[in-house]
Design brief:
With 219 residues, the chain is of the alpha/beta class. The protein contains six helices and twelve strands. Bound molecules: uracil. GO terms for molecular function: glycosyltransferase activity.
Length: 219
Protein backbone atom coordinates (compact mmCIF):
# COMPACT_ATOMS: atom_id res chain seq x y z
CA UNK A 1 0.00 0.00 0.00
CA UNK A 2 1.18 3.46 -0.89
CA UNK A 3 0.74 6.41 1.54
CA UNK A 4 0.37 10.02 0.35
CA UNK A 5 0.63 12.78 2.99
CA UNK A 6 -0.54 16.19 1.73
CA UNK A 7 1.06 17.94 4.75
CA UNK A 8 4.49 17.22 3.24
CA UNK A 9 3.69 19.63 0.42
CA UNK A 10 3.15 23.39 0.33
CA UNK A 11 -0.41 23.59 -1.00
CA UNK A 12 -3.72 25.25 -0.18
CA UNK A 13 -4.79 22.01 1.58
CA UNK A 14 -2.70 23.11 4.58
CA UNK A 15 -4.91 26.19 4.91
CA UNK A 16 -8.12 24.08 4.89
CA UNK A 17 -6.51 21.74 7.43
CA UNK A 18 -5.51 24.59 9.75
CA UNK A 19 -9.08 25.96 9.66
CA UNK A 20 -10.47 22.51 10.53
CA UNK A 21 -8.13 22.26 13.50
CA UNK A 22 -8.39 25.85 14.78
CA UNK A 23 -10.41 25.79 18.00
CA UNK A 24 -12.08 29.12 17.16
CA UNK A 25 -12.67 28.73 13.42
CA UNK A 26 -13.99 25.15 13.77
CA UNK A 27 -16.94 26.47 15.84
CA UNK A 28 -18.48 27.64 12.56
CA UNK A 29 -20.14 24.37 11.50
CA UNK A 30 -20.84 25.42 7.94
CA UNK A 31 -17.20 26.39 7.44
CA UNK A 32 -16.04 23.15 9.10
CA UNK A 33 -18.17 21.08 6.71
CA UNK A 34 -17.05 23.15 3.73
CA UNK A 35 -13.37 22.70 4.62
CA UNK A 36 -13.81 18.90 4.77
CA UNK A 37 -15.57 19.13 1.41
CA UNK A 38 -12.75 21.19 -0.08
CA UNK A 39 -10.13 18.67 1.07
CA UNK A 40 -12.26 15.95 -0.56
CA UNK A 41 -12.33 17.96 -3.80
CA UNK A 42 -8.54 18.33 -3.90
CA UNK A 43 -7.98 14.64 -3.07
CA UNK A 44 -10.44 13.65 -5.80
CA UNK A 45 -8.50 15.78 -8.28
CA UNK A 46 -5.23 14.06 -7.26
CA UNK A 47 -6.89 10.62 -7.51
CA UNK A 48 -8.13 11.53 -11.00
CA UNK A 49 -4.47 11.53 -12.10
CA UNK A 50 -4.25 7.79 -11.23
CA UNK A 51 -7.26 6.67 -13.30
CA UNK A 52 -7.18 4.92 -16.69
CA UNK A 53 -7.87 7.20 -19.66
CA UNK A 54 -8.70 6.76 -23.31
CA UNK A 55 -9.01 9.23 -26.15
CA UNK A 56 -12.51 10.41 -27.06
CA UNK A 57 -13.67 12.71 -29.84
CA UNK A 58 -16.11 15.42 -28.75
CA UNK A 59 -18.25 17.12 -31.35
CA UNK A 60 -18.25 20.91 -30.87
CA UNK A 61 -20.39 23.34 -32.91
CA UNK A 62 -17.28 24.07 -35.01
CA UNK A 63 -15.44 20.77 -35.27
CA UNK A 64 -14.08 17.81 -33.31
CA UNK A 65 -11.98 18.07 -30.14
CA UNK A 66 -9.91 15.07 -29.15
CA UNK A 67 -9.61 14.62 -25.39
CA UNK A 68 -8.55 12.11 -22.71
CA UNK A 69 -11.45 10.91 -20.53
CA UNK A 70 -11.24 8.41 -17.66
CA UNK A 71 -12.91 5.01 -17.97
CA UNK A 72 -12.93 3.96 -14.31
CA UNK A 73 -16.39 3.15 -12.91
CA UNK A 74 -16.11 5.04 -9.63
CA UNK A 75 -17.92 4.24 -6.40
CA UNK A 76 -17.62 6.71 -3.53
CA UNK A 77 -17.95 4.98 -0.18
CA UNK A 78 -18.37 6.74 3.11
CA UNK A 79 -18.56 5.92 6.77
CA UNK A 80 -21.35 7.71 8.71
CA UNK A 81 -21.57 10.31 10.10
CA UNK A 82 -18.44 12.45 9.89
CA UNK A 83 -17.70 11.11 6.42
CA UNK A 84 -20.67 12.90 4.83
CA UNK A 85 -19.20 16.37 4.11
CA UNK A 86 -15.89 14.80 3.06
CA UNK A 87 -17.81 12.44 0.73
CA UNK A 88 -19.62 15.44 -0.80
CA UNK A 89 -16.27 16.90 -1.84
CA UNK A 90 -15.43 13.75 -3.83
CA UNK A 91 -18.93 13.73 -5.31
CA UNK A 92 -18.55 17.35 -6.44
CA UNK A 93 -15.61 16.20 -8.59
CA UNK A 94 -16.77 12.70 -9.62
CA UNK A 95 -20.38 13.78 -10.05
CA UNK A 96 -21.46 10.71 -12.05
CA UNK A 97 -20.14 8.26 -9.45
CA UNK A 98 -22.21 5.61 -7.70
CA UNK A 99 -22.25 5.77 -3.92
CA UNK A 100 -21.96 3.35 -1.00
CA UNK A 101 -22.68 3.96 2.67
CA UNK A 102 -21.84 2.14 5.87
CA UNK A 103 -22.46 3.06 9.49
CA UNK A 104 -19.79 2.39 12.04
CA UNK A 105 -19.85 3.37 15.68
CA UNK A 106 -17.53 2.79 18.57
CA UNK A 107 -18.69 0.87 21.62
CA UNK A 108 -17.15 1.30 25.03
CA UNK A 109 -16.60 -1.00 27.97
CA UNK A 110 -17.18 1.66 30.67
CA UNK A 111 -18.39 5.17 31.38
CA UNK A 112 -14.83 6.49 30.97
CA UNK A 113 -15.23 5.67 27.26
CA UNK A 114 -12.52 3.01 26.96
CA UNK A 115 -13.19 1.62 23.52
CA UNK A 116 -13.63 -2.11 22.96
CA UNK A 117 -14.63 -2.13 19.33
CA UNK A 118 -16.34 -0.69 16.30
CA UNK A 119 -19.80 -1.89 15.31
CA UNK A 120 -21.03 -1.94 11.69
CA UNK A 121 -24.79 -1.64 11.30
CA UNK A 122 -26.11 -0.08 8.08
CA UNK A 123 -24.80 -1.00 4.61
CA UNK A 124 -26.07 0.27 1.25
CA UNK A 125 -23.85 -0.25 -1.77
CA UNK A 126 -23.98 -1.02 -5.49
CA UNK A 127 -22.11 -3.99 -6.98
CA UNK A 128 -18.42 -3.27 -6.36
CA UNK A 129 -16.84 -5.93 -8.61
CA UNK A 130 -14.08 -4.35 -10.70
CA UNK A 131 -15.00 -0.81 -9.59
CA UNK A 132 -12.66 1.94 -8.43
CA UNK A 133 -13.66 2.35 -4.77
CA UNK A 134 -12.81 5.58 -2.96
CA UNK A 135 -13.58 5.48 0.78
CA UNK A 136 -13.91 8.80 2.63
CA UNK A 137 -13.34 8.57 6.40
CA UNK A 138 -12.04 11.94 7.62
CA UNK A 139 -10.53 10.79 10.94
CA UNK A 140 -8.31 7.70 10.72
CA UNK A 141 -7.61 6.95 14.39
CA UNK A 142 -6.84 3.24 14.92
CA UNK A 143 -7.64 2.33 11.31
CA UNK A 144 -10.34 -0.05 12.62
CA UNK A 145 -13.38 1.67 11.11
CA UNK A 146 -11.66 2.06 7.71
CA UNK A 147 -10.72 -1.63 7.72
CA UNK A 148 -14.18 -2.78 8.82
CA UNK A 149 -15.89 -0.36 6.43
CA UNK A 150 -13.86 -1.76 3.53
CA UNK A 151 -14.58 -5.36 4.64
CA UNK A 152 -18.30 -4.54 4.80
CA UNK A 153 -18.18 -3.02 1.29
CA UNK A 154 -16.26 -6.05 -0.02
CA UNK A 155 -19.20 -8.31 0.87
CA UNK A 156 -20.84 -6.67 -2.18
CA UNK A 157 -18.01 -7.26 -4.66
CA UNK A 158 -14.24 -6.96 -4.95
CA UNK A 159 -13.12 -3.56 -6.30
CA UNK A 160 -10.46 -3.33 -8.99
CA UNK A 161 -8.80 -0.34 -7.29
CA UNK A 162 -9.07 1.00 -3.75
CA UNK A 163 -8.31 4.50 -2.46
CA UNK A 164 -8.60 5.11 1.29
CA UNK A 165 -8.94 8.82 2.15
CA UNK A 166 -8.69 10.65 5.45
CA UNK A 167 -8.30 14.30 6.39
CA UNK A 168 -6.31 13.53 9.55
CA UNK A 169 -4.73 10.16 10.27
CA UNK A 170 -2.79 9.03 13.33
CA UNK A 171 0.63 7.48 12.88
CA UNK A 172 -0.73 4.33 14.59
CA UNK A 173 -3.67 4.11 12.16
CA UNK A 174 -1.41 4.56 9.15
CA UNK A 175 1.00 1.88 10.43
CA UNK A 176 -1.91 -0.47 11.10
CA UNK A 177 -3.38 -0.10 7.60
CA UNK A 178 0.06 -0.27 5.97
CA UNK A 179 0.64 -3.64 7.68
CA UNK A 180 -2.93 -4.91 7.09
CA UNK A 181 -2.86 -4.05 3.38
CA UNK A 182 0.88 -4.54 2.76
CA UNK A 183 0.34 -6.90 -0.17
CA UNK A 184 -2.12 -4.63 -2.00
CA UNK A 185 -1.80 -1.75 -4.44
CA UNK A 186 -4.25 0.36 -2.42
CA UNK A 187 -3.40 4.03 -1.84
CA UNK A 188 -3.97 5.82 1.47
CA UNK A 189 -4.40 9.59 1.05
CA UNK A 190 -4.01 11.72 4.20
CA UNK A 191 -4.36 15.49 4.69
CA UNK A 192 -1.94 15.12 7.61
CA UNK A 193 -0.52 12.37 9.83
CA UNK A 194 -0.54 13.23 13.55
CA UNK A 195 1.75 11.59 16.12
CA UNK A 196 -0.58 10.42 18.88
CA UNK A 197 -3.84 8.83 19.98
CA UNK A 198 -5.18 9.58 23.48
CA UNK A 199 -6.83 7.07 25.87
CA UNK A 200 -10.19 7.64 24.17
CA UNK A 201 -8.69 6.94 20.73
CA UNK A 202 -8.88 10.55 19.64
CA UNK A 203 -6.13 11.85 17.40
CA UNK A 204 -3.72 14.33 19.03
CA UNK A 205 -3.35 17.17 18.15
CA UNK A 206 -6.15 16.24 15.68
CA UNK A 207 -9.20 18.47 15.71
CA UNK A 208 -11.65 16.96 18.23
CA UNK A 209 -14.82 15.10 17.24
CA UNK A 210 -15.37 15.62 13.52
CA UNK A 211 -18.98 14.35 13.59
CA UNK A 212 -19.97 16.73 16.42
CA UNK A 213 -18.16 19.66 14.77
CA UNK A 214 -19.95 19.02 11.47
CA UNK A 215 -23.43 18.18 12.80
CA UNK A 216 -23.64 19.05 16.51
CA UNK A 217 -23.47 16.94 19.65
CA UNK A 218 -25.18 13.58 20.22
CA UNK A 219 -26.53 11.71 23.25
O1 LIG B 1 -9.77 12.26 16.78
C1 LIG B 1 -10.76 11.69 16.30
C2 LIG B 1 -10.78 10.31 16.05
C3 LIG B 1 -11.90 9.75 15.52
N1 LIG B 1 -12.97 10.53 15.24
C4 LIG B 1 -12.96 11.87 15.46
O2 LIG B 1 -13.93 12.56 15.20
N2 LIG B 1 -11.86 12.41 15.99
Amino acid sequence: MKVINFAEHQTVVNRYMSELRDVCIQKDRARFRRNLERIGEVMAYEISKTLDYSTKDIQTPLGTASTQLYNDPIVLGTIFRAGLPFHQGFLNVFEEADNAFVSAYRFYKDKECHEVGIHIEYLATPDLNGKTLIIADPMLATGGSMELGLKAFETKGIPGKVHLCSAIASRKGVDYLTETFKDTDYTLWCGAIDPELNDHMYIVPGLGDAGDLAYGGKL
